[in-house]
Amino acid sequence: MKVNNLWITALACGLSLSAYGQQTGGGISSDMLQEIKQAYKGTPADKAIHNAISNNDINKLAVNNDSKNNFDTYFSHKVNSKGITNQKSSGRCWLFTGLNVIRARAIAKYNLPEFELSQNYNFFWDQLEKANLFLQGIIDTRERPMDDKMVEWLFKNPIGDGGQFTGISDNLMKYGVVPSEVMVETYSSDNTSRMANLLGLKLKEYGLALRDAKSSKPEALAKRKTEMLGEIYRMLVLNLGEPPTKFTWTRKDANGKPVETKEYTPQSFYQEFVGEDLKNNYVMLMNDPSRDYYKLYEIDYDRHAYDGKNWTYVNLPIEDIKEMAIASIKDSTMMYFSCDVGKFFDRERGALDVNYYDYGSLMGTTFGMDKKQRIQTFASGSSHAMTLMAVDLDANGKPKKWMVENSWGPGANSGHLIMTDEWFNEYMFRLVVNKKFITNKVKEVLKQTPTRLPAWDPMFAEED
């Protein structure tokens, strides 16, 4: 269908098909096809591999059994955690990760038992803020044509359940937090796709209405936007419940014994159990070898709230990032961490190991791109956020492996994933560290005026 449409379009525009690069000389000729076919020899080994692949999962056939030997789960430095969370069928890994970092400090500070903050509460406000971000973005660009790159991006991305660390800092500092039992999960918070589709459809309808509004006066547009957000708020309440403005909660010690019962607001609970300036006390680090190191970058419109902060990060060599990660873990401080989790992942062991799957031997070829090349060709990018909480150091202080607290519920390693240091090098992308752990080099980079990258830069898809 696409080929036919392209042909018709070319004829209608008076263009030859060669204008689209489809010249006869670049096609597969009969002689070329015969040469191509020679690559498959049909040997007994080829036939055996074909039979195996035809009837089995490639990953199962590519497993390097030697990599299963000596699977060591000991870590020399580890931050304690209590209770594994489960984002279920939602893209809220960024939110679970951020709240897991925070709850770990609260557990340690107050000697709490297994304790969880309500993801549903902060997700509600995230969705409302994202709706406003979209609608105000439409107002700001309403004089541009529909095929403008920014307008197209807005309509393609009206709302979503994915995100990154600025969504944590802006959201929690504004709306506070509540314990999980104060605003429990619902089906729509656990399974976000249907709600997201309906919210996105409604927002696109509203976006067109704002662009077509007869009055261009700011006051009239602001009033109309507020009315639209009222409808979005109602839809969110129907799906997620209405966020509490105050609640009573009993703090218990590690043995489950009641210590204190108080009335809180979400903001007062945040101040008492977190009490930290998330906007200014943390630095986002990136390992992106496709861009210059020791530079400060800012992603345009990559934020969760219109009045929030764009995602700004320092791009660094991987060894620099490791230095700060190790310092944080040694200080019993977990970190927001994101990576390309689907690569070389052994779900049964909860392990991430570049040697676990030997695709090259199975296919009789090589896969030779490095990290920079994988980024440039869209073969790899950050896809999932987790909580970095352990490192195993050798006698010389060099990391051998790392551990993260995941948000996929109980599983191997009690819901934790273990990654080799080599895997960390290849597929780790983002880390958020407290400023007290950053090096002098990073402090100098933070003085730079950031290089601004466009919102649609493919390297900066939201984690889910």
UniProtKB/TrEMBL annotation:
<keyword id="KW-0645">Protease</keyword>
<feature type="active site">
    <location>
        <position position="93"/>
    </location>
</feature>
<comment type="similarity">
    <text>Belongs to the peptidase C1 family.</text>
</comment>
<keyword id="KW-0031">Aminopeptidase</keyword>
<dbReference type="GO" id="GO:0009636">
    <property type="term" value="P:response to toxic substance"/>
</dbReference>
<keyword id="KW-0378">Hydrolase</keyword>
<dbReference type="GO" id="GO:0043418">
    <property type="term" value="P:homocysteine catabolic process"/>
</dbReference>
<dbReference type="GO" id="GO:0006508">
    <property type="term" value="P:proteolysis"/>
</dbReference>
<protein>
    <recommendedName>
        <fullName>Aminopeptidase</fullName>
    </recommendedName>
</protein>
<dbReference type="InterPro" id="IPR000169">
    <property type="entry name" value="Pept_cys_AS"/>
</dbReference>
<feature type="active site">
    <location>
        <position position="384"/>
    </location>
</feature>
<feature type="active site">
    <location>
        <position position="406"/>
    </location>
</feature>
<dbReference type="InterPro" id="IPR004134">
    <property type="entry name" value="Peptidase_C1B"/>
</dbReference>
<dbReference type="GO" id="GO:0005737">
    <property type="term" value="C:cytoplasm"/>
</dbReference>
<keyword id="KW-0788">Thiol protease</keyword>
<keyword id="KW-0732">Signal</keyword>
<dbReference type="GO" id="GO:0070005">
    <property type="term" value="F:cysteine-type aminopeptidase activity"/>
</dbReference>
<dbReference type="Pfam" id="PF03051">
    <property type="entry name" value="Peptidase_C1_2"/>
</dbReference>
<dbReference type="InterPro" id="IPR038765">
    <property type="entry name" value="Papain-like_cys_pep_sf"/>
</dbReference>
<feature type="signal peptide">
    <location>
        <begin position="1"/>
        <end position="21"/>
    </location>
</feature>
